[in-house]
Amino acid sequence: MIEDFGTGTGTFHCETDLCIVGAGAAGITIANAFAGTRHRILLLESGGLTCEDESQRLLEGSSVGEPGLHPAHSRLRAYGGSCRLWGGGCLPLTPDDFQPRDWVPYSGWPIGYHDLEPYYRRALSVCGLHRHRISNGSFNTRASSFPHSHASMDLANRVFVQSPVEFGGATVAPLANAANVRVLLHANLIELHPVPSAEYVVEASIGSLGGRRGTVRARHYVLAAGGIENARLLLLSDSVARDGLGNRHDMVGRYFQDHPRCRLGMLAEGRLDRVMRPFDKATRGEYAEPCLSNEAQRRHQVLASRIRPFAVHAAPSPGVQALRELRARLRGRPAEGAIDSRIEREVAAVLDRGLPLPLPQPDHEAVQPVRAALHLARHAGDVGRMVLRKCRGYSHLRRERVEVMGFFEQAPNPDSRISLEDRRDALGQRRVRVDWRLTDLDRATHRVAARLFGAELARVHAARFVPEPWVEDPADAPVLHGTAHHLGTTRMSANPHDGVVNRHCRVHGIDNLYVAGSSVFPTGGWAYPTFTIIALSLRLADHLRSRLDTFAPLMG
Predict the structure, then answer these.
(1) What mean pLDDT do residues 254-280 have?
(2) DSSP letter, residue 380
(3) What is the DSSP string of 367-398?
(4) Axis-axis angle for helices 530-550, 25-34 (nearest 10)
(5) CB atoms within 10 A of CB 303
């Protein structure tokens, strides 16, 4: 059942078995795992079914770190969460990602790859990837044969696949039809209220932007609101615990990480078509990208990283341009695409900063069909050459160069953190303050990786690698951008002094409060986090089910 809390009237009160805060990938996965069971589930979503300005403004805050990160331009506050802009990329972490690395401070998970592997297999079904198989941090698919082999032991290929599942509208119906699941839209968590000892939570206060207020009493609570908001909600719950829930050791909000990205350089004067062929030929949403091997990370004492080449084409020939214009005019203006709101387009544009831009498309309305047809006839030879290139498996446009983008793991850093500022939002809650900081290990990784990737790509493709100036100049620095993969702010740890949640994602010292999502990652490798978020959420759902079956209510 789906209700709009914001349009209701009167004071709201609900008693339930499990209260989940946040309808993103983690919250939806957990709720779906309980659909059709005897347990009562309440899923709170602060936004609506689509993105709205008023809800989005609740994400605003400040950015004081280097590089900067605008909190409202890297997240979405609506059903589906930031996964409304998810490209579908799925890749598990590697076994080494879970292990302590002596050159990476604060690395290591309290669980191992073997603990998560069965849930990775179950996550395949959640992501609509039933025919795929995983092995040691990669997918065993036909794409494994696409990339060129690397003579250097520094580089390896890992395969990721694209999920067809959209954590937006497509996931609404199963929860709407589940008799035991209640979804409340426009329901914002105001505060979690624990008993005086702060050993368990007895009640949650919720509110809407329209002024409606209510309470939820649950046997268990799960924060699944994202890598920034999970920490913020714990810090805001300070009426009993002065520094916020789970923050006895000042760990909530620390170790904030993203996957920084930047340009490493470009390839020129080589077999540029061959560089891009693995991506031109990728089928069924399967891609393999070069990354630093585990051996290289150990040998060079650096973090995980990968690259993605982007072809920069020469301007289209007159014949190819004429063909484009004619087809565009005959077909009409193309559909807007999957991104269906202005807010989503604006956030997507911010996340695309720094990536090579595609060629501008013709103005469809200004092109007349007859004129385009005559233009095409005058340049038929261009079209013939284009067809020949396509038949040979190459792009129909000549490539001038290939830009090489690097994507990096970030080292855990306790000084990189989420905190609260004094300004308040429309609900009266203190806004978030993001202090994103990198370390010397991060900066060393960027330079070492650029040199290793550049040298190997140049050798394999008989090309010339032209590095960005910062690669060779220690006084220079790359222009870094985030990827909105917010990690680490409620990190998993065996010891309460080292993190916020235990190996079962339960907040240390609080018996019925859990955190789901990438905020529990101690480290993030370079893999897209959503696949691991889903696997961890399935694991947490199993744990919660066992507790709900045996755990007496703590609602008095």
Answers:
(1) 85
(2) H
(3) --HHHHHHHHHHTHHHHHHHHHHHHTTS-SS-
(4) 40
(5) 27
